[in-house]
Amino acid sequence: MDLVFKYLIPVALLVVLVTLGFGLYALFRGGDFGRSYSNRLMRLRVLTQAIAVAILAAALWWRQQAG
């Protein structure tokens, strides 16, 4: 299971980073694109962050249980 978390944690963090980048791009681009996507992408970022935090918490719990 440690191997799963070894790859899952960086992937989750990368997804958060990419979502944040797209959200910031949409925010600063403005216009119709910004109005349509910036808020939606920032809400998606919050969701991906919550998932990443849950994965980190699960990894810490798993490591603590494994001893």
From TrEMBL:
Q: Please tell me the species this chain comes from.
A: Phenylobacterium parvum
A Pfam family that the UniProt record links to this protein: HIG_1_N
PROSITE patterns assigned: HIG1
* The keyword Iron-sulfur appears for this protein: no
UniProt keyword list = Membrane, Transmembrane, Transmembrane helix
Q: Which residues cross the membrane?
A: 6-28, 44-62
**Boundaries of each HIG1 domain copy?**
1-67
Name used for this protein in its record:
Twin transmembrane helix small protein
